[in-house]
Design brief:
single chain; mainly beta; Umud Fragment, subunit A; 5 strands; 4% helix
């Protein structure tokens, strides 16, 4: 996958190429990185870090310390596992 944007800086910069494993229901944990379909933009795939796993969904956030640099669960709420396409263990 190619990173677009700075929400995951300093982990990844815009244009970085990253390897992910296809998600087929594997157990995820806090700090893993996931690729998922944006809840309101179905053709957009987001790359974010898992901050918390709850019964009702997964809270994700970008790594960039600038709160305006990332569109994440602060903006669109929890992610459902069915939206996840790939992951990378932390």
């Amino acid at each position: 996958m190619i990173v677009k944007g700075d929400s995951m800086w300093p982990t990844w910069s815009d244009g970085s190429i990253v390897d992910f494993t296809e998600f087929n229901g594997q157990e995820l944990k806090k700090s893993d990185l996931i690729a998922f379909f944006h809840p309101f933009k179905p053709k957009v795939i987001c790359l974010k870090r898992i901050k918390e796993i709850r019964a009702e969904g997964i809270f994700v956030q970008g790594d960039n310390p600038d709160p305006l640099a990332s569109e994440d669960s602060h903006n669109f709420g929890l992610i459902q596992p069915s939206a996840i396409t790939a992951y990378q263990e932390s």
